[in-house]
C-alpha cells in the first residue's frame, strides 16, 4: 500500500509537470515581433505582442556583447520604468500583452537584437526577440595615379554597417585600413598597386553594402592619358622661359637692324 501511495504521488507530480511543460511549450514562439530597419539618427519602434493571460511582468533587454542589459520593465503592481537611455527611450504599454519601446535619435550602438520577456505565473518567462538594423547611406570615392609603369589606386567607402571592398582584376599589392568615425560609421580605405600592363582594360573597385553592389571604374583610356605622374609645372615654366627668350631675341634683332639702316 505504501509503494502504491508513493507511485500514485509520483504519477500525479509527473502529470502536473507534463501539463506545465505542455502549456509552456505551447506558448514558446508565440510572441509576435517584427524586425526593423532605421537610418542613423532616425526614430524607430520595436513591438512585442503576446496574447496570453496571467502576465505579471514584462522586461525589455538589449543583447550587448553577449550580455543582456535591462533597459525597461513593467510590473502589474508598480507600473512601467525605463532603466537605461531615459532621454532616448519611450516605453509604451498598451496592455501587458502589447508592449513596445520607441528609440529616438538612433545611433550605431542601438544596432542589434532585443528581448521582450513576458513573465507568466506559474510558467515563467516567455521571450520574443525583435532585431534592429541601423544603417547609414554609403559614401564613396576613388583616386589614382600612374608612376613607373604602375597604377596606384585608392578606393574609399564610408557607411554603416561596414562596407566591403574588392578589386577587379584582383592581382597586385593591396592594403586595407578601417577607420571608426565619431558618429560610429566605418570608413574602409583600400589601396592597390598593380602593373599598368595588367589593367589595360581598366580597373574596377567593387563596394558591397547591405546587399547592394557599387562599382567605381578606372578606365583604360583614362589610365593612358590622365593622372599620369608628369612634371607639368616645370615643363610649363620652361616653355614660358623659352618663349620669353625668343621674344627678347627677336626684339633685339629688330632694334639692331634699325640701327644699321640708320647709318
From TrEMBL:
GO cellular component entries: axon; cell surface; membrane; neuronal cell body
Keywords, in A-Z order: Disulfide bond, Glycoprotein, Immunoglobulin domain, Membrane, Signal, Transmembrane, Transmembrane helix
Any GO molecular function: cell-cell adhesion mediator activity
Membrane topology classification: Single-pass type I membrane protein
Signal peptide span: 1-29
Subcellular location: Membrane
UniProt GO BP: heterotypic cell-cell adhesion; negative regulation of neuroinflammatory response
All residue ranges annotated as the Ig-like domain in the record: 27-116, 130-215
Short name of one Pfam family: C2-set_2
Record keyword Glycoprotein present: yes
Regions that span the bilayer: 232-253
Protein name: LOW QUALITY PROTEIN: OX-2 membrane glycoprotein
Organism for this UniProt entry: Pantherophis guttatus
